[in-house]
Amino acid sequence: MTVQTLAIIVLLVSFFVMIFLRFPIAYAVGLSSVLCMLVQGQALTDVCRLMVKGISSFSLMAVPFFITMGVLMGSGGISEKLIALADACVGWMRGGMAMVNIVASYFFGGISGSASADTASIGSIMIPMMVDQGYGADFSTAVTITSSCEGLLVPPSHNMVIYATTAGGISVGSLFLAGYLPGALLAIVLMIGSYIISVKRNYPKGDPFSIKAFVKQLGTSIWALAAVVIVVFTATESAAIAVIYSLLVSVFVYKGLDWKGVWHALDECVNTLSIVLILIATSAVFGNCLTMLHVPDLAATAITDLTDNPYIIALLIDLILLVLGMIMDMAPIILIATPILLPIATSIGIDPIQFGIIVVLNCGIGLLTPPVGSVLFIGSAVAKRPMEKVVKATLPFYLCMFIALLLLTYIPDISLAIPKLLGGYVSPIANPLGPVFIH
């Protein structure tokens, strides 16, 4: 057995053993990398050098700003206003409260960029409200947790910044623009699924649509919705501006936060940021080990040996990401899987921007699946429902999300149309995968 083969075995086996032993993910990534480097005879001083290099990125400056923005606006009392606006838009439909939940998640996702924050904030309001109006508690929870994944696609998602940094040379602005249509597509397929279930179970309708009520609620919520204009700046500038904007709106406009609440929100931001940054730092060492051992090339060869059909390879990539999502959290998957799978994806005609959207949605589905689905756990806790019953109620929505995933995988224009039209994005892929493409 060669040293390279032994190092690969040590790296991957030790990593997955620690994952199944419930080690904190950052420790699992870091320790497996150290063991791999010891097998190869590398100096352990390289660990510190690679960790520092991993977080020494200008683009990563946007991450703490966007996390701070999400916490400030999530704590600033704007959830109720966004729910009221969503109710004015779609509450008149059969199963209107489910539709309101989904649309409100789209609005709120553009502010928080976090599925967990969306579930905790909107779920604590919407789930009791839906139950009071006759909706099943498990159905209400399922709608809440699945619609929260829209926030991962709609800017400003700090996970997209992490992907852009990991992929190298990807425009964060183009990636942000690419998220709007996929987020809307996910909302639409979830609304269709909710409508079918609502008709079957005869869930109630809301009040008839009123232009006057819609305009009134739009005027109230305009300050929160105005946050979407941040994508006209570069990512780091927009993140800094977003923090100032969210602070002013939360404290002085909506008055949902006082200065004591602001300090509490900043404390929460530091806790979240520390987790994200240590993951990025240790994953930089892990990624270096993968590259030095040529694991991406070996993985590409293994997949292409199975089939040379690009559509089947694309499906295999989705399945790999879905399986990883069941055992790992979102940021580690992005940091570890991107260097391995991105070259395979581009080789079969998937644009790097499109692949970023695919990775984020795959990871979002993983957040809803046991055994480590954090959003599933939060939704069950908020609703006070057993996790197994929530999973059963979520099964039809898993199907909806998988349909959306396939559409995003095989139709590049869903992700690339807006970046091309508004951002001037030029795809590096000469022969794109899929039946539709704008040149």
Q: What does this protein structure show overall?
A:
Mean pLDDT is 81; it is low at 435-439. The protein is mainly alpha-helical. The radius of gyration is 22 Å and the shape is globular. The chain has helices spanning 3-20, 25-40, 45-55, 62-74, 79-90, 96-112, 115-132, 137-147, 150-153, 158-167, 172-178, 180-201, 211-225, 235-253, 259-292, 295-306, 310-327, 330-347, 352-366, 374-383, 387-410, 413-422. Helix 3 (45-55) packs across helix 15 (259-292) and helix 19 (352-366) packs antiparallel against helix 21. It is 76% helix and 0% strand. The longest helix is centred in the middle third of the chain and has 34 residues, at 259-292.
Q: How would you summarize what this structure contains?
A:
With 439 residues, this protein is mainly alpha-helical.
Low-confidence stretches: 435-439
Q: Major beta sheet, specifics?
A: none
The end-to-end span amounts to: 49 Å
Tally of DSSP β-strands: 0
Mean pLDDT comes to 81
Helix content: over 70%
Can you count the helices?
22
**Outline, from the CA principal axes?**
globular
* Rg of Cα set: 22 Å
Share in β-strands: under 5%
Keywords:
about 450 residues; disordered C terminus; about 75% helix; mainly alpha
